[in-house]
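Contributing: when you submit paired examples, paste them exactly as shown. First protein:
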Amino acid sequence: MEGSSDVVRNIDRKSSIEAEPRTLGIDQIQYAREAALYVLRTRSVEEAMNVFMEVRVQLLCHVQS
């Protein structure tokens, strides 16, 4: 039995909360909204879509790594 207790101690456990994606704080959400509105107000529709798609791709790449 002593060998099995060594195995249990060596299991590298990770809580499920650590596997969840991180969430934004309210200040970060407000900043993102303001930045998006700025892009919408200062760019054409095509340029704004390109900006948002570029950011989305960067975020997806970051999450996968």
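Second protein:
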Amino acid sequence: MKLYSEAAALSNVTITAHEALFDPDASWVKFHLGITRYALYSREDPSVQRLVHDITAMKVINADYTQDEKALKGACDCSEVVKPSGHHLKLSLKMHNFAKVMFKPMRQQRHEETPEDVFYFVDFQRHNAEIAAFHLDRVLDFRRVPPVVGRLVNVTAEILQVTQNEDLRAVFFTSPAPSSLSSFWSFGVLGDTGGKHQ
């Protein structure tokens, strides 16, 4: 922490502390209370639409690796909690009202196609596939996919400045140039499958 704090002071990055307030009327609480053994939400559940809207505006107060990311890094013995999966970066974001959301960065634009020289089983991670799955699940009336939205995330303010995880901070690069973007690098389990995110 000391090393990062010194580097943060030199590059004008501040570590922000936020207060979390539990709201029993929050849309995520209402959504969770509506889960049944047959579906995640009922057809008429108004909390789903409210939750989809709220996720796009909730304030991020903490960012950390997900349990499966920690298990893959050997940072925890999470084998009884979660099965490690995937090879793309996922972060767990804690919101101001105690909601927790999964964050997967957009790795390429929607219109980009997989290059011909990419190994068959290592296709691009399509961030919009999960968004489409949620909406298709609603149209087909299965109601088994949790709400998923696309959201712009300020990587500096909403991840770098709020995370308490040193390993996560270590993957950031902030250019000393004024008004520059922060970037971070992630590395997957299948070798160097990481990518640069801004």
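If you have annotations for the second protein, write them as plain sentences, like these:
Residues 2-108+125-186 form one domain.
The chain has a mean pLDDT of 75.
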